[in-house]
Each structure stands twice: as C-alpha cells, then as structure tokens.
Design brief:
- The protein is an alpha+beta fold and 131 residues long.
- Helix content is 18%, strand content 37%.
- It is built from 2 helices and 7 strands, in the order αββββαβββ.
- Strands 5-6-7 form a 3-stranded antiparallel beta sheet, with no helix packed on it.
- It is elongated and about 80 Å long.
- The model has no long low-confidence stretch (mean pLDDT 80).
C-alpha cells in the first residue's frame, strides 16, 4: 500500500505554499521586532491620552499615561511628567515626595491628601487630584 498524505484525503484542503526558509526567517524576525517595539522599556512612561477643557479663569486637563515600572515602583508624576515612583509614596499619599512640580514651583498637599498644588513664583496655583 502506497503512503498517502492526510491532506490528499480532503478535497477542500490546499497544501501550504512552498517558501524558502529565508522567507520564513524574515517573517518571524519582523513579527518579533513589531512585538518588541510595542513594549516600553522598564522604568519609563508615555502619555496615552491628553484632554484639555478651558473654562473661564481655569483650565481642566486630564492625562492618561502608560508606564512599565520596575518592582516596587508605580506610575506617578515627577517634574510635571509621568514617571515611575516609589510605591510607598502612593500608599502613604505623600505626593510631594515624588517631586511633582517644576523646579521653581512649591508643592503642598491638599488637606484631605487627595492630591497636591504647585505654586508658581507669580502666585499662580495648579491643583492636581488623584483618581
């Protein structure tokens, strides 16, 4: 009895196209490169969304960041940019310890520890609440 392949028994089956091993190596390397490039490096963040609403005398901005933090770190804010910070800061709500304000601004905790304010030398105040 002559050996037959399983595909030959099915009438609707089509054999795989014959491609060189170089072709399949390029396909594999390309897919791995795409997957690798979509990953953030450990300890870095990127802004995913940024919405800004301007009202009379005040502006409300909402920002969402994606972070790849190292062990013991969590997404936070440093120098008004998303960053990985020590998780203890977030647990204890000591927001000013992560240095969220710019260099020339002063940081103060809100009374209920729900966020912080950054006060500029001219008196302008930026309030940030954590949700």
């Amino acid at each position: 009895m002559a050996p037959t392949s399983r595909l030959s028994k099915r009438k609707d089956a089509k054999p795989w196209p014959k491609m060189s091993s170089t072709f399949w190596a390029v396909v594999l390397l390309t897919s791995l490169l795409i997957i690798y490039c979509a990953q953030l490096a450990a300890g870095t963040c990127e802004i995913v969304t940024f919405d800004k609403d301007s009202l009379p005398r005040r502006t409300i901005a909402r920002q969402t960041a994606r972070c790849a933090c190292k062990k013991g770190q969590i997404a936070g804010t440093t120098r008004a940019r998303p960053a990985c910070v020590d998780a203890r800061i977030v647990r204890t709500k000591q927001w000013c310890e992560m240095i969220p304000c710019l260099e020339d601004e002063g940081c103060d905790l809100l009374v209920n520890k729900s966020g912080w304010t950054c006060t500029q030398p001219g008196g302008r105040v930026k309030t940030t609440t954590v949700s």
